[in-house]
Amino acid sequence: MLTKSLKTTLNQNLVLRNLSVRGFSVKEYDLAVIGGGPGGYVAAIKGGQMGLKTVCIEKRGSLGGTCLNVDCIPSKALLHSTHKFHDAQANFKSIGIETGPVTMNFDKLMQSKTKAVTGLTGGIEFLFKKNKVDYMKGWGKFSGPNSVAVDMNDGSKDEIKAKNVIIATGSEPSSLPAGMLDIDEEYVVTSTGALELKKIPKKMVIVGAGVIGLEMGSVYSRLGTEVTVVQHVDRICPFLDNEISDAFMKILKKQGIKFQLNSRLTGGTNNKEKGVVVELETPKGKENLDADVVLLSIGRRPFTEGLQVEKAGLEINKFGRIDIGKNW
Hints:
By secondary structure, the chain is an alpha/beta fold. The chain has helices spanning about 5-20, 40-50, 65-70, 70-90, 105-130, 190-195, 210-220, 240-255, and strands spanning about 25-35, 55-60, 135-145, 145-150, 155-165, 170-175, 190, 205, 225-230, 260, 265-270, 275-280, 285-290, 295, 300.
């Protein structure tokens, strides 16, 4: 007959075994990186190269972060392709190349963009394997100063412990106050939705004249979309030197893009497939613009929500940033 203490020990071992089978076993690492973008994956690879037992946790399901997946790389791929398209339409004849009517297969354009993205993100996975970096596909959040709970993309849960944790969760698009013009990534979109449109819109209004908005405006303008950019100050890309900003706007105007400067978005109505109405306050008074798609390109904010940083003894300030020591 088993003694009471032996039964207790056996039951505890059975529970631990079941937790391990269900994916709740706690692995220990020298370094855990939350986020697989340009900051995160580079840090993880460097950790592996230095001999640290390293894991990178990324919820997207593909590495590379915003830059490789939904920003720099796909937008540059579209800019490159549409530049060639515009060149063939407008400039080939002047150097003696006659092609006849040139059209764009939008589906193939998007496939080409996706191929460029997957090639690069797949390359990062190869580098993880080469440098013995573990890759967890899921949402990482602190469960203690040196522990991270992970809601895996397959629905399971896991937890790891690490001597060191790097937070590299990047940023996300800023949005307007709730109810003003809510994002649905189909008719009212961020750069993420603009990179995945199913068809070329006839009219597009872009709110914000920063780099991302102007890149996407240039892409769709070349494809035949009537593009209007709304900017709240008197020039585009205000972080640039005035002379560069002015010269850039002249180039974009020549391309066919229209600008509403010193104009603020005050509201709007998303009628979905019937179109979106944007309400503006302009130097001439109130004005409404109609569009098939509205791109909100009003900057980005830190992506820190849901990290549970308080469990690691950290704080998030009013700007969504994690407060760090004054020496950093």
